[in-house]
């Protein structure tokens, strides 16, 4: 993801930082860019290993706090927690996931039919629904072949 500072009002990173008065630092930008480029839904530690190459003094705690802040302001999502560690996703568009219970792969699913699943009346009575995400659990193609 290429960030253009001259047109930052259109960029989700810069616009969210401005909206929440979050200072744009090279470290925060590197963390976000790393996450935005990844399709693997990385953990904080995986982001840390890559960002540390560019910023050797950055700590894992800083990465964790930054990712938590990004999630709090709606810049990224915490992917369904299938155990530890937490995984993150910079794609905040509505989509669903398939999760491999063996290797941990998380695969994005974009399907309008899943978006239209009806929420049961019992749930609508008990919760104010603010979003929905379908998660399929099973074995990915590679792990299925190994079984």
Account of the 3D structure:
- With 147 residues, this protein is of the alpha+beta class.
- The protein has helices at residues 12-19, 26-37, 44-54, 60-72, 112-115, 121-126, 141-146; strands spanning 77-78, 88-89, 96-100, 106-109, 135-138.
- It folds into 2 domains: 5-88, Winged helix-like DNA-binding domain superfamily/Winged helix DNA-binding domain (Arc Repressor Mutant, subunit A); 93-146, Ferric-uptake regulator, C-terminal dimerisarion domain (Dna Ligase, domain 1).
- Helix content is 41%, strand content 12%.
- α2 (26-37) crosses α3.
- The chain is globular and about 45 Å long.
State the distance separating the first and last CA atoms. Answer: 37 Å
Number of domain units: 2
Chain-averaged pLDDT: 89
Lateral strand order in the biggest sheet: 4-3-5
> Which percent band covers the strand fraction?
5-15%
Assign an overall shape: globular
At the fourth CATH level, what is the homologous superfamily of the largest domain?
A: Winged helix-like DNA-binding domain superfamily/Winged helix DNA-binding domain
Q: Roughly what percent helix?
A: 40-55%
CATH class of the largest domain: Mainly Alpha
Report the sheet with the most strands, covering strand number, pairing sense and barrel closure: 3 strands, mixed
* Helical run tally: 7
What pattern of helices and strands is seen along the backbone?
HHHHEEEEHHEH
């Amino acid at each position: 993801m290429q960030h253009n500072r001259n047109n930052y009002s259109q960029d989700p990173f810069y616009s969210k930082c401005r909206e929440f008065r979050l200072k744009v630092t090279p470290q925060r930008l590197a963390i976000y860019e790393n996450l935005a480029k990844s399709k693997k839904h990385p953990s904080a530690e995986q982001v840390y290993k890559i960002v540390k190459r560019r910023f050797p003094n950055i700590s894992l705690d800083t990465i964790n706090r930054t990712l938590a802040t990004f999630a709090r302001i709606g810049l990224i999502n915490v992917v369904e927690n299938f155990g530890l560690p937490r995984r993150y996703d910079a794609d905040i568009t509505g989509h669903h996931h398939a999760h491999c219970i063996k290797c941990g792969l998380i695969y994005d699913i974009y399907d309008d039919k899943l978006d239209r699943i009806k929420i049961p009346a019992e749930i609508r009575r008990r919760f104010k629904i603010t979003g929905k995400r379908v998660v399929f659990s099973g074995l990915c193609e590679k792990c299925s072949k190994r079984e």
